[in-house]
Amino acid sequence: MMTKEEKIQPIIVPTDKEKLLDGKVALITGGSSGIGLAIAKAFMDSGAKVIIAGTNETKLLSALEGLEKRGGTTSKGLIINVRDVETLPDKVKEAAALFEENRIDILVNSAGVVTKHNFWDTDEAEYDSIMETNAKGTFFMSQAVGKLMVEKGIKGHILNVTSSSALRPAWTPYQMSKWAVKGLTLASTKHLMNRVLVMPRPLLVTSTSMSTWRRTAAVSAVSKAAISSSPSMRALVMAS
Fold first, then answer.
1. pLDDT, position 96
2. φ, ψ for residue 32, nearest 5 deg
3. Could you tell me which of 66, 16, 23 has the C-alpha nearest to residue 47?
4. Is there a contact between 235 and 185 (Cβ–Cβ < 8 Å)?
5. Which residues of the chain register pLDDT less than 50?
6. Active site residue 127
């Protein structure tokens, strides 16, 4: 049996990582804080233009202020509520138009809500909030951006940020939602193979010290996909 250390996959960072995402435009939901913001910073460091999306304008403006100090005019922000499904197609087009390229090459589904209560104390409102953000939001954001990529003939990439909860039995709405995201990503190889997005293999990354490697893992995963000949849909599974 493999040890815990042997199960952890090494993260290989190319020496020319600063240029890997040159010319790419990335849209990152949940990009105003946490993992989403860390990914935005890593993408900018690798040459991408980034659009961070969130629901809190104050947090979004604060995050943009920090990003602008790193990359000048290579970051933009947009209010997007992934639970408001009817608005997503128009929001995606609005996001694409924020840069002169008028395109989205990379979507990062990082918007997420965590469980506050255990199985016995979770009510319907909390359940719906988690599932609609984490699972439903990921599905319909992927659909909206995927359609834009098809329309524009973009060989794009989708990175779904999930959790090691997707590797364990689901006992909470959060764990259930991460199973759903994992399932969506795995199924995409069959249903999107002949369109724009395909999935060579999910990237599964686990660690007990996420803060020290999450940026490196994210940029490594998408950077490898971005320079490959095939577009991709990948799942980045992070410890939680």
1. 97
2. -90, -5
3. 23
4. yes
5. 5, 11, 15, 198-213, 226-227, 229-230, 237, 239-240
6. no
Beta carbons within 10 angstroms of residue 185's beta carbon: 25
Q: Which residue has the tokens 């199960």?
A: 7
Name the active-site residue from 109, 174, 192, 214.
Answer: 174
In this structure, the chain runs to a length of 240
* Mean pLDDT, the chain, integer: 80
Q: Which amino acid is at 143?
A: Q
- State the amino acid at position 199 in one-letter form: M
Residue 191: count of CB within 10 angstroms of its CB: 12
Reported as type and span, the H/E element at residue 94 is: helix 88-96
Other CB atoms within 10 A of residue 207 CB: 16
CA 204 – CA 216 distance, rounded (Å)? 14
pTM: predicted TM-score of the whole model, two decimal places: 0.81
Quick one: tokens of 29?
């939901």
Instruction: Please name every residue paired with 157 in a beta bridge, in sequence order, or none if there are none.
Output: 106, 232
**Could you give the count of Cα atoms lying within 13 Å of 197 in the half-sphere of its Cβ?**
29
**What is the crossing angle of helices 214-226 and 34-45, to 10°?**
50
